[in-house]
Write a structure and sequence with these properties.
The complex is a heterodimer of chains A (166) and B (147). Chain A is mainly beta. Helix content of chain A is 8%, strand content 54%. Chain A has helices at residues 51-58, 114-119; strands at 3-9, 14-19, 22-29, 34-42, 70-82, 85-94, 97-110, 125-135, 154-164. Chain B has helices at 2-32, 43-47, 83-88, 96-126, 132-144; strands at 34-40, 53-61, 69-73, 79-82. The chains are: A mainly beta (166), B alpha+beta (147). Chains A and B meet through strand 1, strand 2, helix 2 and strand 9 of A and helix 2, strand 2 and helix 4 of B.
């Protein structure tokens, strides 16, 4: 149900890595249109669909998941921009390096009803979606010169997560 | 010198074939590729009016198995393709971007081989082999001189 993914768009190919192993918590006030969120992604479960590539991705030269098993994001400021749109500032930690980022996100809220229960939610449901670029070198991950055609130096991270009350 | 001529001709022919082949393969693939948005089916997403969770951005590729296609359209009119179906059936579609990248390098290498072949043949033509009689005479003389 949860989906955190990255997309690398290099000359040779575009590939995505994704995982649904996301934990965290979110608060949302539908009346005041504000809230907060904290997400923790199990970096070792990111999968690109090719086992060899996944092995490289988890190795010390890349995500080094043995030493940095999680990717984390925690909001520090949320500003409502109209409709379901929000500007969110927060700290993202990848490969043990924390950076402050500001991203645009959509947050949709549905009160508990027969359909939400049918899907498997116990209470009110919140959908949070955002996409933002991450420069790998900002987090101490440098793409080797011989791989620049295959792996982009900046990847697009997309997050689609659902939270429920109760 | 005959071997150099053969190598030059081989380079020329392979170069021409590589350039034409790369162009033909790329054109053929481009003609069949569609803008595809991979989608991970999710009941939760349907609560919010989405067909599923979008995986990456739309890309030009070929997905031959129509059973993988989902109803509706994705961003930029892209065809929605079921990620779960692809995974379960071991389908990893080749991207047009990859075909273009490989074709680009094959064309460059082919062009280099073509030019190398032409230069080689030109050089061999500019300096023709001496007639067989002269070759015999030269070798006889060179043998006779030391005595």
């Amino acid at each position: 149900m949860q989906l955190v993914q990255f997309e690398s768009n290099a000359d040779f190919e575009i590939f995505t890595g994704r995982t649904d192993k996301v934990k965290g918590e979110a608060t949302f006030d539908p009346a005041k249109r504000t809230g907060s969120a904290k997400l923790i992604v199990d970096a070792a479960t990111l999968s690109t669909g090719i086992d060899t590539r996944d092995g490289h991705m988890r190795s010390p030269n890349w995500l080094d998941t043995a030493n940095y098993p999680n990717i984390a994001f925690e909001t520090t400021k949320v500003v409502h921009r109209g409709g379901d749109n929000y500007r969110v500032t927060g700290n993202i930690t990848i490969h043990g390096v924390t950076k402050s980022i500001t991203v645009d996100a959509t947050v949709k809220y549905v009160k508990a009803n027969a359909t939400t229960q049918q899907v498997g939610f116990k209470g009110d449901v919140l959908q949070i979606k955002t996409t933002f670029p991450v420069k790998l070198s900002d987090h101490g991950i440098n793409v080797p010169q011989n791989l620049v055609a295959k792996v982009a130096g900046t990847v697009k991270v997309s997050v689609t997560v659902y939270a429920q009350t109760g | 010198m005959k071997i150099f001529r053969k190598v030059a001709w081989a380079a020329l022919v392979l170069g021409v074939l590589a350039v034409i082949g790369a162009w033909a393969a790329e054109s053929s693939y481009a003609g069949r590729a569609r803008l595809i948005q991979i989608v991970e089916p999710s009941e939760a997403a349907t609560l919010f009016g989405d067909a599923g969770n979008m995986v990456g951005t739309p890309q030009q590729m070929i997905v031959g198995d129509e059973k993988a296609v989902m109803p509706g359209k994705g961003p930029n009119g892209s065809v929605l393709v079921n990620s779960k179906y692809l995974r379960e059936h071991g389908i990893y579609p080749l991207q047009l971007q990859t075909v273009r990248y490989v074709a680009h390098w094959v064309r460059i290498l082919g062009f280099c081989a073509l030019v190398g072949g032409l230069v080689g043949l030109g050089a061999l033509r500019a300096k023709p082999l001496p007639p067989p009689e002269e070759q015999v005479e030269e070798s006889t003389m060179s043998k006779a001189e030391p005595g």
